[in-house]
Design brief:
It contains 10 helices and 14 strands. The chain has 301 residues and is α/β, with parallel strands linked by helices. It folds into 3 domains: 82 residues, Winged helix-like DNA-binding domain superfamily/Winged helix DNA-binding domain (Arc Repressor Mutant, subunit A), CATH 1.10.10; 99 residues, D-Maltodextrin-Binding Protein, domain 2 (3-Layer(aba) Sandwich); 100 residues, Periplasmic binding protein-like II (D-Maltodextrin-Binding Protein, domain 2), CATH 3.40.190.10. It has a 5-stranded mixed sheet. Strands 11-8-12-7-13 form a 5-stranded mixed sheet. A two-stranded antiparallel sheet has the order 1-2. A hairpin with a 2-residue loop joins strand 9 and strand 10. Helix 1 packs across helix 2 and helix 1 packs across helix 3. The chain is elongated, with a radius of gyration of 23 Å. One of its GO terms (molecular function) is DNA-binding transcription factor activity. It comes from Rhizobium leguminosarum bv. viciae. This is HTH-type transcriptional regulator TtuA. Transcriptional regulator of the ttuABCDE tartrate utilization operon.
Length: 301
């Protein structure tokens, strides 16, 4: 007999990339996950995964079985959630990925009261600045700042996200205050490397223009990007949700070069073709209300 626990273990191992990570996500021991996987293969009469000391890869049978197995697991989870929602309860597991700095500064404080109000929701929040694949990595949704380029995702806007060109008062006193896009070419820039060093895009009457200042520092973390600007290393193009407090405190100054950076948003996105659960919609609605319009973090509202 094929047991649903074995199917769930198999899907989790494939999505996680390892038995250890799958065990962590399922909150089971590694040995239990391995036993369930072995029992499933015995029931099916074939190997689903090639195992080596370094990685797991799908067999031909595993590749064929995976699609239906994943649908079975999702449908059972959705059916259980539907039953709970019929009783007026939001419950069950949900997995969301979000960026580090936004998660620490704004997402966490917004989510904590929601989770306290709905204690039967089992949220796993993965905080990581890397661009995860929501579908293949097994996330119910991702939260990101900026454009959503993946056509396989359905995006909901949670809040506007202005980006502000800013530097420390000390840097501007030493190097001068740029007043045009052309002036930026002679300044030192601090860039967020997860978006590339050419992400200074501004809106003009002739369309978007990319400006490339001299590289002073490339970094893949928003907190350190802000701190480097405060330390006077150069100019940074920072989201208002990161730069806002430092601007209000006078540690950073916003720079006006006559053109605004391209508009962006805070998004929640879920894989296309997957019916979002009521609890995911409830989380999105709660976050929109918590962030406000305009968002509370914007230094000028």
């Amino acid at each position: 007999m094929i047991r649903i626990e074995g199917i769930a273990a198999f899907v989790a191992v494939v999505e996680a990339g390892s038995v250890s990570e799958a065990a962590r996500r399922l909150r089971l021991s590694k040995s239990v996950v391995s036993e369930r996987l072995a029992e499933l293969e015995k029931s099916l009469g074939g190997m689903l995964l090639h195992r080596t000391t370094r990685k797991l890869t799908l067999t031909e049978d595993g590749t064929v079985f995976l699609g239906r197995a994943a649908r079975i697991v999702r449908e059972i989870e959705e059916a259980a959630a539907d039953m709970a929602e019929r009783r007026g309860t939001l419950s069950g597991p949900i997995r969301i990925a979000a960026p580090v700095t936004f998660g620490r500064m704004h997402l966490g404080p917004a989510l904590y009261p929601f989770l306290a109000e709905h204690p039967e929701i089992e949220l796993t929040l993965d905080i990581d600045d890397r661009r995860v694949d929501a579908a293949s990595d097994g996330y119910d949704a991702i939260i990101r700042n900026g454009p959503i380029a993946d056509s396989r995702l359905v995006a909901w806007k949670l809040a506007h996200s202005r980006r502000l060109l800013c530097a420390s008062p000390d840097y501007l006193a030493r190097q001068g205050i740029p007043s045009s896009l052309a002036d930026l070419n002679s300044h030192r820039g601090i860039f967020y490397t997860n978006r590339g060093v050419a992400d200074w895009r501004f809106q003009t009457f002739d369309g978007a223009i990319v400006v490339r200042a001299k590289l002073a520092l490339g970094i893949n973390n928003g907190d350190m990007l802000r701190d480097a600007a405060i330390a006077g290393l150069g100019i940074a193009l920072l989201p208002a949700f990161i730069a806002g407090p430092a601007i209000r405190e006078g540690r950073l100054a916003e720079i006006d070069v006559g053109h605004k950076p391209e508009a962006e948003f805070i998004y929640m996105a879920h894989p296309e073709g997957r019916n979002p659960s009521a609890k995911l919609r409830a989380i999105a609605d709660h976050l929109k209300k918590s962030f406000g319009d305009p968002p509370y973090w914007d230094p000028v509202g």
